[in-house]
Amino acid sequence: MKNVIFHIDMDAFFASCEEAINPSYRGKPLIVGGKKGDVRAIVACPNYIARKRGVRTAMPLAQAVKLVPDGIFIRGTRGLYKDFSEKVMQILNKYSPIIKQTSIDEAYMDVTNVLSGYDNNPVKLAKTIKEEIKNTLNITCSIGIATSKVYAKIASKINKPDGITYVPFGKEKEFLSKLEIQRIPGVGKSTLEIFKRYNINFIGDVLKYNRSFFEKELGLDYDYFRSIAEGTYQKGISIEEEERKSLSKEHTFNEDTNDLKFLDEQLFSLLEKAANRLRKNRLKAKTLTIKVKYDDFSVNQKSYTFNKYSNLEFDFYDKAYSLLKNLIHKKKKIRLLGVKFSELCSIDATQGDLFENEEKLESLTEKLDSLREKYKFDIIKFGKNF
Question: Domain 246-385, CATH 2.102.10.10 — does that match?
Answer without folding.
Answer: no
